[in-house]
Specification:
The chain contains twelve helices and 13 strands. By secondary structure, it is an alpha/beta fold.
Length: 323
């Protein structure tokens, strides 16, 4: 994608403000009708692998809801962290006769048949957040998100530049190819060891990180795959008496405030608000006007580094629920 086009997309996404939509996780669903739009006769389903309690998805939904308002479509949201159940939600959307599907593909192999069914029903599918290496194989027409491997490489290089030598990379969702790609990339730049945890149980995550830090005092950085887990990691570091620094993928208000006060060193932001906005608006444009974005390639929304040098600019957006 040409830089000028990406800048135009980013400018649109980051200047549109919306409060957070409520999010309960699991097989949640909601409908948003964009009364302000000119075309309210289309329905788009957004289907994700949302983990309950992960504020990242609130920001995704804020962007998607803003796009629904601007385009006038009805947006139906549903999610399940079980990839097989996510596939069922896709089939449910097909059966309901939606006009388009925007979905994540963190577990792509479980979604092959569901996407094929959408294509057979002539329902266009775009992907976002995860599935950058698989969206074309699966049959999606566009992708919006960060290249997670490249983002991991950038973070690993940054940690090495800042003097880090031994990283603990915490993966909070088993089987997520996106999270695994992040940690793989980190390991390209600095010595890194992966640790799998259950992101739905903060107490167990805390205990696992404490035990690992006590077992290996040479760990000088803890990298988490989501902002809520980063906050748990801060507690674990304190309990373990470690001096390790924390970096995280993704951002929320609490993490942004922690960057401002210096307790979290930095965040790698994939700009989920922008992902949600572009995924929904791109489908509307495709249905209404046959438009496609990216020229056959993924439209990248990151990585965008957030640290002490730019947190004053980013924090107001985090307070608005859009970063």
């Amino acid at each position: 994608m040409k830089a000028s086009r990406l800048i135009r997309f980013a400018s649109v996404g980051t200047t549109l403000m919306l409060g957070l939509a409520a999010c309960t996780g699991g097989e949640t669903s909601s409908e948003t009708s964009g009364a302000a739009g000119a075309d309210s006769d289309n329905t788009i389903a957004m289907i994700t692998h949302e983990t309950p309690g992960d504020t990242y998805w609130d920001i995704i939904r804020a962007g998607a809801n803003q796009a629904a308002t601007h385009t006038g479509i009805t947006l139906k949201y549903s999610s399940d962290p079980d990839f097989t159940k996510q596939a069922t939600l896709v089939q449910n959307a097909i059966d309901s006769g939606v006009d388009g599907i925007a979905m994540t593909a963190a577990g792509p192999d479980a979604l092959v048949d569901a996407v094929a069914a959408a294509n057979a029903a002539k329902i266009p599918v775009v992907m976002f957040d995860s599935g950058i290496d698989d969206y074309q194989r699966l049959g999606a027409i566009m992708y919006f998100g960060s290249d997670e491997y490249v983002a991991g490489q950038a973070l690993g290089a940054r940690i090495a530049k800042d003097g880090g030598t031994n990283v603990l990379c915490v993966i909070h969702q088993e089987g997520s190819v996106a999270l695994e790609a992040r940690c793989k990339g980190v390991g390209e730049g600095v010595s890194s060891e992966n640790m799998q945890v259950d992101g739905t149980d903060d107490a167990r995550v805390n205990a696992s990180i404490v035990a690992k830090l006590q077992q290996d005092p040479s760990i000088d950085w803890v990298v988490t795959m989501g902002a809520p887990v980063a906050l748990v990691a801060l507690q674990a570091i304190s309990t373990a008496g470690s001096s390790a620094q924390v970096a995280t993928f993704d951002l929320n208000l609490a993490a942004a405030e922690a960057i401002k006060d210096g307790t979290i060193a930095l965040a790698v932001d994939a700009q989920p608000y922008l992902q949600g906005y572009l995924a929904v608006s791109s489908l509307w444009l495709f249905v209404k006007n046959g438009n496609d974005s990216g020229g056959g390639k993924a439209v990248l929304t990151g990585p965008s580094m957030v640290d002490a040098s730019n947190i004053e600019v980013i924090l107001p957006f985090a307070q608005n629920g859009t970063r």
